[in-house]
UniProtKB/TrEMBL annotation:
Its EC number is 5.3.1.24. It holds the Pfam family PRAI. The keyword Isomerase applies. InterPro entries: Aldolase_TIM, PRAI_dom, RibuloseP-bd_barrel, TrpF_fam. It comes from Pelosinus propionicus DSM 13327. This is N-(5'-phosphoribosyl)anthranilate isomerase. It comes from the Bacteria.
Length: 199
């Protein structure tokens, strides 16, 4: 609760709840409670290859503003969610730009590729290789993957994304750290002049 409130106070536009199986997975009831108490910030639920009905039920119960899909979900799946969608793509050699543009998503999220892992790896991808992606994409682009207070400015300067997504880069010993969140937000805002959304 304190971390969500603190992130909001530091200027984050969205907060994420990881419902996919991972070390950051949150209990549904806890996410609901935080969402009820922390107002004025958009709530994002993170899922990986979950049954559509499960996603819809959790989104309704937790009153999610966005559903972030990190698996192999199809365009048809995204279309059926019934909420604004952030569709994540793991950037590997041969990343298919055209395929990403076929998705009925409100955001595209570019994340690093690690075999067998869906986000939260703390590893960056080759930003240079996708330098033109954000300007060519007709869907707003969010960037994730190994972002920290030290490198977020460089990522923003190079890619000019519409949003940034951070997790491990603002943690200490596996827990969110308000001081690091503050440092991250300062670095991000300085780099983009207040135009990039942050989660």
């Amino acid at each position: 609760m304190e971390i969500a409130q603190g992130a909001k106070e530091q200027g984050a536009d969205l907060i994420g709840f990881v419902f996919a199986e991972s070390k950051r997975q949150i209990d549904i009831k806890k996410a609901h409670r935080i969402g009820q108490e922390v107002k004025g910030i958009s709530k994002v639920g993170v899922f990986v290859n979950s049954p559509l009905q499960e996603v819809q039920e959790i989104a309704e119960y937790c009153q999610l503003d966005y559903v972030q899909l990190h698996g192999e979900e199809t365009p048809e799946y995204c279309r059926s969610v019934g909420r604004p969608v952030i569709k994540a793509f793991r950037v590997a050699p041969g990343f298919n730009f055209e395929r990403s543009q076929e998705y009925p998503a409100d955001w595209i999220l570019l994340d690093s590729f690690t075999p067998g892992q869906y986000g939260g790896t703390g590893i960056t991808f080759d930003w240079q290789s996708l330098q033109d992606f954000t300007s060519q994409s007709h869907i707003p682009v969010m960037v994730a993957g190994g972002l920290t207070p030290e490198n977020v400015g460089a990522a923003i300067s190079l890619l000019s994304p519409s949003g940034i997504d951070v997790s491990g880069g603002v943690e200490t010993n596996g827990k969110k750290d308000i001081k690091k969140i503050q440092e991250f937000m300062i670095a991000a805002r300085r780099a983009e002049g207040g135009k990039t959304n942050a989660k």
